[in-house]
Amino acid sequence: MQAIMETLFDIVYLSLVITVGVLMIRGSKGNRQFRLFGWMAVILGSGDAFHLVPRAVALCTTGLENYTAALGLGKCVTSITMTIFYVLLYRVWRQRYQVTGRGGLTAAVYGLAGLRIVLCLMPQNQWLSADAPLSWGIYRNIPFALLGLLVIVLFYQAAKKHQDRAFRWMWLTIVLSFAFYIPVVLWADVVPAVGMLMIPKTCAYVWAVLMGYFAMKRECR
Description:
Layout: H1 2-27, H2 32-60, H3 68-96, H4 103-121, H5 134-161, H6 170-187, H7 198-219
């Protein structure tokens, strides 16, 4: 039952975010923020597919333990594409609220993203191993969490200042995604049931993507 339900959920999720992303790219009508948002959604779905597709195959065939390398590689790719997702979200923030200058802020965003990607590529992560060290799972997620926190603060302050109803909950989608993701990083290997928190985490990202899509539909007529 888990295999069927999880696989169906993943199919719906991947199809939805990639389709919405393509629709945003095509329907942005030259609006840079929504074109960026569309690419953000496509990268989110495409990156997650590297992990979710092997996971679905494993659940529906011989089990997760027989797909360790594929799942590990998928996690690595997803970790990198999620980092790119947040960099693009930062660019959306700059475009939407007409932010200029602030080179130090941009340097911080790209610095944290670059550090996260470098840490993800380090061999000590042992992505292809069934016994990947928890310590490196924590190390690579420190700059990622700081990046997420920075984007949360930026969207919260900007949406409030500009009374932006369309994006007023964008900050909350990111808060929820990290609230569900952090326990998975820390305890999923010890308590496998904690891994189920990836479902509401995924729903938080779907909410963010749909928020951008509906804003485009209202503003790009």
